[in-house]
């Protein structure tokens, strides 16, 4: 989307229980220490509410996919789990700054977090060791994913190079 990056931090809390609730508790204790405008998405679709923790911090229990997409586009920095789908969204949006916390016991997320950190693309931290102020400062020094083709370009190339000869 062609929207300004006017949201300092988007914090998306997700994952299976009880890990989702544990991460929520950890992040909500620390989020107000961050400077700038912050939106926290709790990933709780059954409790629909929105509240302000302070003048710069909004907590939403749940948002639609469309609203989450808009918020991700607006965000300068994203804090979330390191699931494959989330990481592909971050790549497609060409976001360069994020902090990722793999869901404990989710080996795919743990592997991806370690791999991305080793590449110096994104910083990763266990939810039990999170110190947002410190970890975000460290994460700013990471580069984000390298430049890559966008989905639209890949689909066009697939059509032209592979499928067109059969249609």
Question: Can you tell me about this structure?
Answer:
- With 167 residues, this protein is an alpha/beta fold.
- The chain is 38% helix and 18% strand.
- The chain has helices spanning 19-30, 65-74, 84-92, 107-118, 132-139, 151-163; strands spanning 7-12, 38-41, 50-54, 57-60, 75-80, 98-100, 123-124.
- The longest helix has 13 residues, at 151-163.
Question: Topology of this structure?
Answer:
Elements: E1 7-12, H1 19-30, E2 38-41, E3 50-54, E4 57-60, H2 65-74, E5 75-80, H3 84-92, E6 98-100, H4 107-118, E7 123-124, H5 132-139, H6 151-163
Parallel strand pairs: 1-2, 1-5, 2-4, 5-6, 6-7
Antiparallel strand pairs: 3-4
What is the ordering of alpha helices and beta strands?
EHEEEHEHEHEHH
**Could you give the count of β-strands?**
7
N-to-C span: 32 Å
Mean pLDDT: 94
In this structure, how is the largest beta sheet organized?
Answer: 7 strands, mixed
Strand order of the largest sheet: 3-4-2-1-5-6-7
Overall spatial form? globular
Please give the share of residues in helix: 25-40%
Q: List the total number of helices.
A: 6
């Amino acid at each position: 989307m062609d929207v300004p990056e006017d949201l300092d931090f988007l914090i998306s809390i997700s994952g299976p229980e009880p890990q989702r609730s544990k991460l929520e508790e950890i992040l909500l204790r620390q989020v107000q220490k961050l400077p700038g405008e912050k939106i926290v998405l709790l990933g709780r679709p059954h409790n629909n509410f929105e509240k302000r923790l302070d003048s710069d911090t909004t907590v939403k229990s749940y948002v639609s996919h469309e609203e989450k997409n808009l918020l991700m586009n607006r965000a300068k920095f994203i804090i979330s789990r390191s699931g494959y789908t989330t990481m592909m969204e971050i790549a497609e949006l060409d976001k360069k700054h994020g902090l990722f916390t793999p869901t404990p016991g989710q080996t795919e997320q743990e592997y991806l977090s370690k791999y991305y950190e080793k590449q110096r693309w994104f910083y990763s931290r266990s939810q039990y060791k999170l110190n947002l102020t410190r970890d975000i400062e460290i994460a700013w020094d990471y580069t984000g994913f390298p430049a890559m083709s966008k989905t639209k370009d890949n689909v066009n190339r697939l059509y032209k190079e592979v499928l067109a000869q059969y249609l």
